[in-house]
Specification:
The protein is an alpha+beta fold and about 270 residues long. The protein has one domain: T-fold (Roll). It is built from seven helices and ten strands. The radius of gyration is 18 Å and the shape is globular. The protein starts with a strand and ends with a helix.
Length: about 270
């Protein structure tokens, strides 16, 4: 997916380093030094496999993926795997729900499900972690964060996901609480500061110019957060209004001139 995936867990399942374990989706390297090391190793391996499986199917960077075969016209969507067809159907539903702001096609017509696939992989990885018995963790994939439990095992302290300042990538605008005592377990950010204008306005052969430089969305689940962050970046203030009216989310939007628009959750 061309991104870095990191997993943070609190003691007693703690790996060396202050943030648990970090690596790219193709390595899974890990050093451990406590009694729960084998559990953490198993968790890292399982998360790595989830992301690799999604990458093999949906990545347009891999020539051998289903997505690349569809893009080249070698595979019809109707003959693709069930995972591909199901994800495409979900993406179409989001396009309808956001009134076209979110789209699964590039301006040249190439099917590109990257706007939803990463969030699906994060969701599945979180399910795997829970199945392995890990209740306290924070999973970050390229700045999109899903958290469960607390950084204090069994406690009520929330995880805090930082929102980077697009004008200064070394600074944070805020840190949003995720986990216990909140209805927000996920935070996703979409913007142009790192990747430039990579979000398209549906049906137009140009990058989006919505008036926003960066949009962060906090929601109960990461798919909703990620899709709406992308949709608001593409659709601008109108889509922001649609999102806050139709979904239980909090939004922090950075305008092109550096101003901030924030719902109450981000102002607290």
């Amino acid at each position: 997916m061309g991104t870095v995936v990191s997993l943070a867990v609190p003691a007693p399942h703690r790996a060396s380093g202050p943030a648990g374990t970090t690596g790219d989706a193709g390595t899974g390297e890990l050093e451990t030094h406590d009694a729960g090391a084998w559990e953490l190793e198993a968790a890292v391996a399982a998360v790595e496999q989830v992301f690799l499986a999604h990458d093999r199917t949906f990545s347009l960077y891999r020539p051998g993926s289903e997505a690349s075969a569809i893009a080249r016209g070698e595979l019809a969507l109707g003959h693709a795997s069930e995972d591909m067809r199901h994800t495409h159907a979900e993406a179409l539903r989001w396009r309808l729900d956001t009134e076209g702001a979110f789209t699964p096609e590039r301006p040249d017509g190439v099917l590109d499900l990257s706007g939803i696939v990463k969030a699906q992989a994060i969701t599945e990885a979180g399910t795997v972690l829970l199945a392995l018995g890990l209740q306290d963790w924070c999973l970050n994939a390229g700045g999109d964060v899903l958290a469960h439990g607390s950084p204090q095992p069994g406690g009520s302290e929330p995880w805090r996901a930082g929102v980077v300042d697009p004008a200064d990538r070394g600074a944070l605008i805020t840190a949003f609480p995720l986990g216990p005592a909140t209805s927000r377990n996920a935070l996703a950010t979409s913007g142009t500061a790192e990747r430039g204008g990579h979000i398209w306005v549906a049906g137009l052969m140009r990058t989006a110019s919505s008036g926003f430089r960066q949009v962060s969305v906090a929601a109960e689940d990461i798919v909703t957060a990620d899709v709406l962050a992308t949709a608001i970046m593409a659709g601008g203030r109108r889509t922001l209004d649609i999102a806050t009216e139709r979904w239980d989310v909090d939004v922090l939007a950075v305008t092109d001139d550096g101003g901030l628009l924030a719902t109450p959750g981000f102002r607290a």
